Amino acid sequence: MTEPEPTPPPRSATAVRQGRTTGHVRWILGISLTLVIVAFVIAYLVS
User: Is residue 28 part of a domain?
Assistant: First the structure.
């Protein structure tokens, strides 16, 4: 019978992320969603 592999020691959230959070993606998603909603409203009103 083989022995199970030992589990690695726990790591902090910063060590696991290995980067910084700037919030740019949140802005891009928000602006994109707003533009899509505006486009659908315009398409609905034109049709």
Answer: yes
